[in-house]
Each structure stands twice: as C-alpha cells, then as structure tokens.
Amino acid sequence: MIRWRKGEVVRIRREWPGAMELDVTVPEGECRALAYPPLVGRPEPGDDVLLNTTALAMGLGTGGYAMVVAIPNRLPEDPHGPGHLVKARYTPLQATVLGADEQDSPFHETLREADSIDGMPVVVADLHSALPAILCGLREGAGRDPRVAYVMLDGGALPAWFSMACAKLREIGWLAGVVTVGQAFGGDVEAVTTHTGLLAARWVLEADVAIVTQGPGNLGTGTRWGFSGVSAGEAVNAAAVLLGRPVAALRVSEGDLRERHIGVSHHSLTAYGRVALAPAQVVVPELAGAFGERVRDQAELLAVRHELVSVPVDGLHEALRRSPVRLSTMGRGLEEDLAYFLTSAAAGRFAASLLS
Question: What gap in Å lies between CA 240 and CA 124, rounded to an integer?
Fold first, then answer.
C-alpha cells in the first residue's frame, strides 16, 4: 500500500507557506519531494528523510511527489498551545489543530448557537481549479473587493498547504482566509464539518461570499457515483440549511477527451441533479455556437429542482487573463479549455450580483 524509501535532501527547489519542494536522492536516483514543515519540521540539504514514494510510482499528476514522512535525525519540537481537534485521524500523521468551533477557541461562543449564514452567497464547484476563475469573475462583477472565504473540503488534498494558488490568493488579499473542514487541515480556520466551516466563513472571517470546493486533486472511477466531487451536492444542501444562497458552478469542458466530461460533466449532473436535495441557482454560461447549445440543453436536466440562471461571459476572458495565479485544470491551461474557466468565472460574476 505504501512504498517507503530513505533519501537525502540535495536542494530546496522552492517554498511557500506550509510547504517546501525538494530534490532528494533515493536508491533509484533523484526525485522531487514535498515536505510540510508544520508536520515534520524544516528539512535542509544534507538531511536524511523518510519518504512515501507511492504517488511517484503511480505517476500521479497533481500529487506526483515523494512525500516527506519524517526527518528522523532531527525531530521537530512538540507543539505548544491549545487545539484538540484531531485531523487525518488514525493515520501515522494525525495532527491536532485548534478548531474554530471547539471549547478552547475564542470563537466557540459565537459558533455554539450559530444557525444561519444570513443569506451569504455560497459558490459551489467540483474541482479546486475553479477557485481562481470564480474569484476572477467575482471581482470583475463586484466593482469592489469583496471579502471571500474559501471553504476547502476533504475530497482531494488534505493539507491546504499543498495549494500554491491558495497561498498566493491569500497573500494578495483575494481571499480573506481558508477554512479547512472534515479531515482537511492547514487553513487559517479549522472546522469540523462543512456546516461549521460555512458558519466560520461568515462569522469568524466575516466573509461576504464563500467558495466551496475540494482541495487540489480529486478521485474518480469513471462511474456515476464514484467520484469525490459528489461533495458539491452535499455543500449545496449545507448552504441551504444554513439559510445561505447556494450558487452552483457547472463543470464544463470543451477540451477534455473523455465523453462523460464534454459539455456539462456527468459529475455536475449527478452532484446537483441527484445529491443536492435543496434548490440552488445553477449558473449557465452564455457560450457561443453548437457547444453553447449543448451546454444549455444538458443544464436543462437540472431545472427540475434548481433555478437556471443564464449569465453572459463577455469580458470574462480578459478578466481570466489577468489572474494572479496560473489557471490549469487537469493539465489544461486557459486557452486549452476556455469553456471550463469561463463557466467558473460566470458563477463568480453571478455571485457578485447577489451582494448588496
């Protein structure tokens, strides 16, 4: 199940908040590795490290690193301070964090009886790659700098530190903060469930808008139900029960070679059409030509339960080009799958129209 290797750190390639990319020598040669200093300490050139090389052996894309499990000759100090939530539970790297909703938190009293997010728009998407595109559309449509919280689900990467995009968007103020929920951890705010994550976004981070997606990477089996993005439908339900305004961003592609993802992905049709039991406003982009007609026809399948909202995409291509982080989904950039990014940006543009 796990491929173990011992290695030696050769050099530090780059680092960003919570993560370091390294070159490490292993018996097979040199490989690229990722370390999370908050978990294992800070590796330096010359350090011996214990690695999990499973992702390298599998040839994974998003997560294709050897992962540093420990620096055995130089262990980090024990953690100090409060925090009783255990995340990545019952794994060798389970970690304690301070949850916004736990008793030791300064926000416990705020969240203990909180039962509403007071009409806050909640944009829900399948893939993490939609996050910066939604923000591009949101900021283009808002005419101001809204406070936006990213609620990261645990269907993809568990550490929020893995996302360089999140680090940059947080640094430049496009995100007021990251809330990690479920087994995900490493956000500015930690929460137990999607529900308390949304409440924390509203009442701890004081967000005007929340964006909910899984972390980088996702799991899919090519079956109707076997994909981690079903959580998008569950997030719609959570937003609705907390009296928010769920906005569903469709997963649309013109560049994916797999038939089940061309036009409106079967992921969106299942998550919003079958899993989401509460109504949402589903944003349908006004794309041109036969492909645009295909997207609109497929989206009609969701009209039984949801309100379809047609949103123009004029000006969004330019907004996406100005993205402060690289836009990429499943290895395809902005121009290689423009429809995907326009659709996400259209959801952001519509959410901006809901702000008073």
Answer: 12
CA separation (Å) from 60 to 129, 219, 257, 331? 16, 11, 18, 12
Same domain for 63 and 190, yes or no, is no
Please report which residue ranges of 11-120 form alpha helices under DSSP H.
37-40, 54-58, 108-112
Report if residue 76 sits inside a domain. no
Average pLDDT of 160-188? 97
Considering only residues 210 and 142, tell me which one the structure prediction assigns the higher pLDDT.
210
CATH of the domain at 180: 3.40.50
Q: Are 132 and 126 in contact (CB under 8 A)?
A: no
Average model confidence (pLDDT) across the chain:
94
Sort residue 292 into left (φ over 0), alpha (ψ -120 to 50) or beta: alpha
Q: What global pTM score does this model have?
A: 0.95
Cα 223–Cα 229–Cα 233 angle in degrees, nearest 5: 110
Would you state the structure tokens that stand for residue 115, as one six-digit string?
A: 């039962």
Buried b (16+ CB within 10 A) or exposed e, 273-304: bebbeeebbbbbbebeeeebebbbebbeebee
Which pLDDT value is given to residue 63? 61
Query: pLDDT per residue over 50-67, tens digit each?
Result: 999 988 877 766 667 899
Residue entry with tokens 């964090």 = 97
